[in-house]
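Mods, move this if it's the wrong board.
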Amino acid sequence: MDLEKRPAQQQKREAREPSEARQPPEARRAPEAQSAPERPPTPERPPTPERQPAPEGCLVVAIRIPVRIVVLVLVVPVRMVWDALVVGGRLLTDTVLRPAGRAVMWVGRAVLVWPCVALWRYAVVPLAQGVGWLAYRLLVVPAVWAYRYVLTPVGHAIAWAAAGVRAGGGWVARGVLAGLLWLYRWTVVPVGRSLAWLVVHLLVVPAGWLYRYALTPVGHAIAWVVMGVVWLVRMVFTGLWLGVYWTLRVLLVLPALAMWRWVLAPVGRFLAVVGREIGEALGHAWRVAGRISLAVGRFLANVFRWIVVEPSRWVYRTVLTPAGHFVRDVVWKPVAAAGRVVGRTTRQALTTARETVRQARAGLRSALFGQPTEPKPVHRREPRAAEARTLGSSTTALTKD
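Not the wrong board. Structure tokens:
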């Protein structure tokens, strides 16, 4: 029975597995998703609030208004005087200082720059060119000739002699060096080795034995004693330092710290608040005083225009301009026309007189010296193609008679 039931169960399992394999992956993941617990949503972070300025105390508010009123009363006259000085300085610069500066610059250029430029251009440069030409002809040319035809052959001869001396000296030096090497190898080296062996066996070996077996134990003992003394002295000085440190801390540092914390710091904060308020009050008062000064200046400018400029403009437009036109049309134009006529007549008379004098002078000259001969015209052109050029008819300077 067990053998019969087992194949049946196995057949059912094989029939169920292909059906599950034919299902889509979304359907197979659905039960897993349903069985998994849902995660709670992540809470969003609240936005970071902007940093608010620190609130001001009642002391700052109580100090600010009186200080600003007092500073404004003191600064307004100063600002008005300052603006008046600025306007006066600009007017003085535009009307006096700038033209004076330009005039002084022109005078300085005419007195200093132009003479120096002329002196450099027409005196120094030609003189330097002349001196350079003389130096070239009197120094450079002879020096080049002497170098080329005197010093160069002498230098070649000296170089040849030096090469011969160097070759002979090299042979002599090689022989001396070979002798010294032979003497060093067969004399100095054996003697040095013997002396080194004697020094090692008579001095170095006994000294090493003495240092290892005699001086080293004594040095260790002395080092232990010195270290104990140093430790004892250090402990004594440490105790003294701790005593002095706590004494100074209790007697000086703690009172000074209390004075700083409870007296100087509050006074400094108060003075800093007062100084800051005074500085801000000065800036605010300076700006307000500037606006007040601008309004006063505009009012004074309008008063000046109403009192001086407008009446002057009215007088110029209604009185002076018609009077000037009347004078120009009635007086100046007729006088100018008459002056032009007189000038034209005078020029014609002078021209006529000049021609008369020239004719009289020509007649007198012809009467005394005769009629002058007219110069023959000189033909400066090349001969024509029809005329043949020969030695007798050549126009060159070398073949002329």
